[in-house]
Design brief:
Blueprint lengths: L1 E8 L10 E7 L31 H16 L8 E4 L5 E7 L3 H16 L12 H16 L17 E5 L4 H14 L4 E4 L3 E4 L2 E5 L5 H8 L6 E5 L2 H6 L7 E6 L15 H8 L1 H4 L1 E10 L3 H4 L8 E5 L7 H8 L3 E6 L2 E6 L2 E7 L12 H16 L4 H10 L12 E5 L2 E6 L4 H15 L9 E5 L7 H14 L2 E5 L10 H14 L9 E2 L2 H9 L16 E5 L4 H10 L3 E2 L2 H8 L2 H5 L1
Helix pairs in contact: 1-2, 2-3, 4-11, 4-12, 11-12, 13-14, 14-15, 16-17
């Protein structure tokens, strides 16, 4: 038996919707996870499921028993411990609820130490002298430990409605859209995003605040009356959610990202972790689910709230039809319009092509984000008109939505700055790039993709990004992210990206590698000299920069080079000339 970690989760988590002590043990020989990202039914691991005692290894059963015995002796809840499987081979999770932090951790440490020395947990079993001395030592430590309560915000402490947004891609954009709609409707809104904490769309605390700390900053403010909280996987896994429940939730999608971290290896497991955001939604609230994503749609079976679905399908699928037949609510695209459907009723919200965030409809991922945001804002009490007005006035600019499909002109070249950091995100931004390139100067313009991401992505994700660029872009460059290596070497990052490019049937030998995002953009724009691909400095091109660590510097460089932000609302026909021919 080997202790992997003891962790106090201070709010709802994948195991329970309350604070728990999580003790992870490895039993048996060391093995590494290997399997499919989307496993067959027989290989599925349900992280929150309780394993019956007959299937638990004896050290794990003993740990659960010692935990209960010590908790009953020292004022901690003496509920039965639950045992869970991990998809890491030989790893087991034991959880139980807690009320006092230092005391709870010390009890867990004591239980591990006693099991490690084979001390029997049954009170009727005699202890050897060595066991008695060990128990006496830990008993003294537990008695002296503090009892700080968990920091989650209970429902009786919360004074404002909350909507939580989760998913792999799109959650930041959906969070910003909902915030914009609610502010436009007269609400005073506190928002958490991976960029920072905002009040009425104004930044008040920069940084990644998508965990429980950000939720606490907003929910304890006295100058807001609604909270819109982007909620990431990391906070749920490492600390639990920061509050007991929400009034509405949005789950955008699940795709390969942040895998092989904290024991999460597959898409079903990732969906299960993120579903906590929906499982805590109050019964009288709404949870908004993507009907086009089977992992997200499956969450509907595990929530207590009313369910609203959204779908991009040209014809509603079986799930949508059944949902509407039962009187449910859905958000759809019909005849070029976003509509709210309820039973047989249809309420038009906005024309897709008129929404700047959709860039004339070619940014299909933002059409889906607009549907999700419409559903979320309605769940928070916004009217149909307020939703339509808010979506229509939201522009994907660097000021309003930094790093999310920000468009610039530099001469005749178009630069797209985007935070895309996984295969699905890269595919979405390249869809936009090729859509713009198809209308430039009446012919297809070449697309350059400057790729790279954080080093904590698994090899298959890095290769997938390289393959996607190899299949979709005319020219590829790699930019290094030295501050985001996260345990990898720069050579390893570049090697995996190049392997993906080769998998697309392209040569990677001539793909340039730049030491930073600004260096890559400057070179690929051909500033101050001949561009690396031999084109004229003012040649029509669309350049996509996957921007992660130098966003402010990139925006400053664009300004230095005479770049100006593109106002999609007023420049759409210039950006997409073919719309003039068909519109």
């Amino acid at each position: 038996m080997r202790l992997v970690e003891i962790r106090l989760l201070e709010g709802p988590n994948v195991y329970r919707l309350e604070p728990v002590v999580k003790v992870e043990l490895a039993v048996g020989r060391r093995r590494t996870w290997y399997g499919e990202r989307t496993p067959k039914r027989h290989a599925l691991v349900r992280l929150g499921a309780t394993v019956p005692p007959r299937e638990q290894p004896s050290p794990v059963r003993a740990l659960a028993a010692w935990g209960r015995r010590l908790r009953s002796d020292f004022g901690e809840p003496a509920d039965a411990a639950r045992v869970h499987r991990s998809s890491d081979p030989g790893h087991w999770i034991v959880t139980w609820s807690w009320t006092g932090a230092e005391r709870a951790r010390t009890i867990a440490e004591a239980a591990v130490a006693l099991v490690d020395r084979d001390a029997p947990p049954d009170r009727r079993a005699p202890l050897r002298p060595a066991h008695e001395r060990l128990l006496a030592t830990w008993t003294g430590r537990i008695a002296a430990a503090g009892a700080m309560p968990p920091s989650w915000i209970r429902d009786d402490e919360r004074r404002m409605p909350v909507i939580s947004i989760t998913g792999t891609n799109g959650k930041s954009t959906v969070t910003r859209l909902i915030t914009h709609i609610l502010v436009g409707s007269g609400r005073r809104v506190g928002t958490t995003t991976s960029d920072g904490v905002l009040v009425d769309e104004r930044m008040v605390e920069p940084g990644d605040w998508t965990g429980p700390g950000g939720a606490h900053l907003v929910l304890r403010r006295s100058d807001v009356d609604a909270a819109v909280l982007e909620t990431a996987r990391g906070g749920i896994v490492l600390r639990g959610m920061g509050y007991e429940s929400n009034d509405a939730s949005v789950f955008t999608n699940v795709s390969a990202d942040h895998l092989d971290l904290q024991g999460i290896h597959t898409l079903p497991e990732l969906a299960e972790v993120k579903s906590v955001v929906c499982r805590v939604t109050r019964a009288d609230g709404w949870t908004v689910l993507n009907a086009d994503d089977p992992f997200v749609l499956g969450v509907a079976r595990h929530v207590r709230a009313r369910v609203a679905l959204f779908s991009m399908a040209a014809r509603p699928g079986v799930a949508i039809r059944r949902h509407l037949d039962a009187g449910g609510r859905a958000y759809l695209v019909e005849r070029g319009w976003l509509v709210e459907a309820e039973g047989n009723a249809r309420r038009p919200i906005a024309e897709v092509a008129a929404l700047p965030v959709t860039i004339g409809g070619i940014a299909r991922h933002n059409v889906a984000n607009a549907l999700a945001a419409a559903a979320g804002a309605r769940a928070m009490g916004a009217t149909i008109d307020q939703v339509g007005d808010g979506l229509g006035s939201f522009s994907p600019s660097a000021d309003v939505s930094p790093g999310r499909l920000n468009l610039y002109r530099v001469g005749s070249r178009i630069v797209i700055v985007d935070f895309a950091h996984n295969e699905a995100g890269v595919a979405a931004v390249l869809d936009v790039a090729t859509g713009i390139a198809g209308g430039a100067a009446g012919r297809a313009a070449p697309v350059t993709a400057i790729i790279g991401t954080a080093g904590d992505r698994p090899d298959d994700t890095l290769r997938g990004i390289g393959r996607m660029a190899g299949e979709r872009a005319d020219r590829i460059a790699i930019k290094e992210t030295p501050h985001y290596l996260r345990g990898r070497t720069a050579a390893s990052m570049v090697g995996e990206l190049r392997a993906g490019i080769r998998a697309a049937g392209r040569s990677a030998d001539d793909v340039p590698v730049y030491p930073s995002e600004t260096a890559a953009l400057r070179a690929e724009l051909g500033a101050g000299g001949r561009p690396p691909d031999g084109a004229r400095p003012d040649a029509t091109r669309v350049i996509v920069l996957l921007c992660h660590e130098q966003r402010d510097e990139v925006f400053a460089l664009l300004a230095e080079l005479g770049g100006r932000p593109i106002d999609v609302a007023s420049e759409l026909h210039e950006l997409l000339p073919r719309l003039q021919r068909v519109g």
